[in-house]
Amino acid sequence: MEHIELGWDEFWAYLFRVRHRRSIPGIQHYDNLVVDFCIEVLGLVEGDEVLDIACGAGDHSVLLAKKGFNVSGFDLSASLIKSAEELASENNVPVNFFTGDMREINFVQRFKGAVLLSHSFGFFNHEENRKVLEGTYNALVEGGKLLLDLMNPYNMPKFSKSWTKLKGGYLLSEPHFLDAPAGVLRGRPATFVDTEKGQIILMNQDALSNNDIRMYTALEIQDLIEEVGFSKVELFGANKLPRMPYAASSERMVVVATR
Ligand SMILES: C[S@@+](CC[C@H](N)C(=O)[O-])C[C@H]1O[C@@H](n2cnc3c(N)ncnc32)[C@H](O)[C@@H]1O
């Protein structure tokens, strides 16, 4: 079999976020539960403007738009934004999708709610992570709310080496590695065996880097959020209803804060 290497955008973005994610059994039901949770804890009412930061392939943005919200969604990956636009048009809903970097959010007091879902926070160093929160703060109206849906650092998922069957091939995922002294979850190598094209697809250096996530504890994230001006920080232990208190054993660490 021929071996080829792909970069971050093609490998992670398309293979993982579109082909892999959309093949997970029950994922649409899960997304619906997450979206209903966001609507309730953010206190959104139909017609409100919502910002989906790092929206990936647009699955949550489109569900929010279908429920009557005015949604803007952006992601660093142009190929994911293209997939997101296709999804919105298949579902016949308007969503303002665009390509952008979460460190450069420049909206001014426009949104009632802003979400970063599926642990899309902590990709950078501390200062840049703070910049993401500052931009989000500026983008929210007074009383608007931010929601961060994060892994619980005290109850991390059990990562193991796994094979997943996808349309057109098999994905081999290596486990993540938790670098405890750095407080960072290091990205994992993965390989896709494309049985249709007869290719083994590997990640190049660009795809292997850029996958680290800083694992903030509840106290650390609360400090950071308050430093940028947010108030009333709330913590939940799940990203679906009913609202669950946050504890060491919680499945998620969801942080909600008000501008
Ligand atoms: C774990 S995925 C989550 C995607 C989506 N929110 C979901 O729940 O399916 C993280 C996303 O962050 C995006 N991303 C990474 N760095 C980014 C940046 N600097 N600015 C905006 N998006 C970024 C990736 O392209 C990817 O789509």
Task: Please write out the topology.
Blueprint: E1 2-6, H1 8-20, H2 27-42, E2 49-53, H3 59-66, E3 70-75, H4 78-90, E4 96-99, E5 111-116, H5 126-139, E6 140-151, E7 162-166, E8 169-173, E9 177-179, E10 184-186, E11 190-194, E12 199-203, H6 205-208, E13 213-214, H7 218-227, E14 231-236, E15 252-258
Parallel strand pairs: 1-12, 2-3, 2-5, 3-4, 5-6
Antiparallel strand pairs: 6-15, 7-8, 8-11, 9-10, 10-13, 11-12, 14-15
Helix pairs in contact: 1-4, 2-3
The structure holds S-adenosylmethionine (SAM).
Question: Could you characterize the architecture of this molecule?
Answer:
By secondary structure, the protein is an alpha/beta fold. The protein has a domain at about 25-150 and about 215-259: Vaccinia Virus protein VP39 (Rossmann fold), CATH 3.40.50. Helices cover about 30% and strands about 30% of the residues. It is built from 7 helices and 15 strands. The chain has helices at about 10-20, 25-40, 60-65, 80-90, 125-140, 205-210, 220-225, and strands at about 1-5, 50-55, 70-75, 95-100, 110-115, 140-150, 160-165, 170-175, 175-180, 185, 190-195, 200-205, 215, 230-235, 250-259. A 7-stranded mixed β-sheet has the order 4-3-2-5-6-15-14, sandwiched between helices. Helix 1 runs parallel beside helix 4 (about 80-90) and helix 2 packs across helix 3. It binds S-adenosylmethionine (SAM). S-adenosylmethionine (SAM) binds near residues 59, 60 and 75.
